[in-house]
Amino acid sequence: MVRSFDRVRRVVVVGAGLAGTATAIRLLRFAREPLEVVLLERRPDYRCSGVAYQRESNHWHHVFNIQAGRMSAFREDVDDFVNWANHEADRSDWPADWRDFAFTESGPAPRRIYQDYLVDRLAEAVREAARGVTLVEADGEAVDLEVFGDRAHVVVEHLALPAGSPAVARATLEADHVVLATGLETKHPAYAAEVLDHPAFVRSPYSPDGIDRVLNVRKDAVVAVIGTLLSGYDTATLLLRQGHEGRIHMISGSGLTPRTYPADHRHQVFELSPPRLSAATYEGREEFVRRIREEWDRACAAVAREHPGISPDVVTERVAKSWEPHLPAILERVPTDELRALLDSYGSLIAVLRVSAMAYTTDIVDAATGGDGPVVLTGGRVQRIHATDAGTLVVTVADGGTTRTVEADLVVGPFGRESNYERADSALWSSLLRRELAVPHRRTGRGVEVDPCGRLLGPGGTPSGPISVVGSPREGDEIVRNGRTGAFTFNLAAIKNHSVEVAATTLHRLESCYDDRAADLVPSLTDAPDPELRDAVSGSVMLDVRRMATRDRADREVAAGRLEDNLRRVREVIARAGGVVPDDRAVRFAVNTAATTKLTDLSVTPRELRFLLGLEGAAEPVG
What we know:
alpha/beta; eight-stranded mixed sheet; 38% helix
């Protein structure tokens, strides 16, 4: 492929929520040559947040379900969020409960401050970007995309470029590469079709209107909350912390509730033996589930026995994480229809076993449940919600062969997520599927097909063009490729890695300093038999890791200079050994590919990763 490097390349990132912002930051940090990053967002209030972290969509009582110490946007800089919250955040408008709060690695943090964190880190990335590397924030909704050779055209409605300027009804953005960071697609529950616009029905618990209606419901009102996992607990927590006295019905088909992290919890990764499934082929759902349960019980018992200091509440999380590397091979033997059925049947259970929640959220709800408490757990699936003449809503719940009803003054729906992109309410994804630039994920039906680097694939299994994907649309691929299950297929942990690999591989294609045709060179250098060559390559990889992880431009330039010296050494060692000397662009590509792999290593925790990469000693987080 002949490239043109006589102009500034442009990358259009569609979606400026968590995934899009994280990817834009990586592009700004990694780019060595002039680049324009256009960060497009259809909802300006969601910029640098998405629905999960938007300020007005989250009350101060909504905290992360995991510890503050796991919320850094950068795996290689594990303490970054806690340090920001303690030393950089503007707390002038924070409520008293949080204004003087000292954030710790194992403690809680309110979700709504994350938008400010991402805004600050994006602004820093802009300031510290290499010369000629710029960010343009734009408002508008991408509704179509066409590929023309090695470029793409993004059709945008109501485009304001830059953000806040007068909008154009319909315009086309030309791009050398497009990153799709479209976030979660909304799923509207069929059982609520009659009441979607009723004032007593809250369609989204994470919206300014939803928060307002929960806060202003009568103290003695009967409230029905659909779901007993994290969004349900968030709503119940908000009610209880506001002094709600009326009955709170929490309705769930699974009957599962979140576990609680111990106060001193610290993320760890164990190496456990893989599940021993003796059969080489799939023997049916019942037998498969039986064998998995046997192996699960064995693994949990082993963790409890060999690590007696671990809280029983997190044993399952340790096992689930340790099994992830082994799951792709296990899932290969499961027929597609069966795999989809298993994911549907056990999705909620997997979520509860894989991740817990903070005591700030769970303790108040659990204490109010049962006995004389206001919270009542109701088992069964919601079949219908209809209105009464009195203005209340009646929720019909089916459990087995029985049906019951709950009449409520307010009904709060769950956070509905549509994972089948053929049903997504998105003009852009509908167009991508219609044009066959995207295809639904074949094995799981969740998200779309991508290659190992996140490039969007068409029906033939080849890249559709200069298009990459980060975040939620990669759910199915994360399951079958990395064994990640539950929310871990699309949450912050996955997005951290997506942003690194997509930014790096995009720049491999766009920047003149790389030769991305040299993929075969990577193993020959990193696994070279010559110890001197291995040492030179290893040193180069670690320097490139440091360059990619460095926030300050001056420090990054120093690391880049040292890297170039090491790359020359690599070529000199190859020449002395009489080998065919690759050009500097090929060596640079091979080294950066290896560095990207190291930065996205899932076999260790972020704190262990930082230590292994030599970025810092095993320092404690700043409290």
